Amino acid sequence: MIVQTGTQLSGKVAIVTGAGQGIGACVATAYAREGARVAVIDMNKDGAEAVAKEINGLALVGDISEEAPVKDGIAKAEA
After folding, report:
1. pTM for the full model?
2. From edge to edge, which strands make up the β-sheet containing 58-61?
3. Is residue 31 within 8 Å of residue 58, measured between CB atoms?
4. Taking the CB of residue 15, how many other CB atoms lie within 10 A of it?
């Protein structure tokens, strides 16, 4: 579990694609540290779930080259 260290993104929602690993996971973590609610979207379910759990975010699985998973992810992130 990460600790929020800033407030620059408080009240904001971020959807980070490719966030199940690597640079995307680092971006998701940085946004969460700054207070954003973060939706982690990745094609790799296990990776998305692991990062989301670590940052207390929302795990979404999908291929962002397709329109349906993107629309679904936005709707879930805004809820």
Report:
1. 0.88
2. 13-17, 37-42, 58-61
3. no
4. 23
Which whole-number Å values give the CA distances from 7 to 1, 25, 27, 35, 58, in the listed order? 17, 19, 16, 5, 19
> pLDDT tens digits, residue range 24-59?
999 999 999 999 999 999 999 999 999 999 999 999
The per-residue pLDDT for range 53-63, each reduced to its tens digit, is: 999 999 999 99
Structure tokens at 2: 């990460």
DSSP bridge partners of 30: none
Give DSSP secondary structure letters for 25-36: HHHHHHHHHTT-
Closest CA to 38 of 46, 48, 28, 30: 28
DSSP state of 42: E
Closest to 32 measured CA to CA, from 53, 62, 61, 49: 53
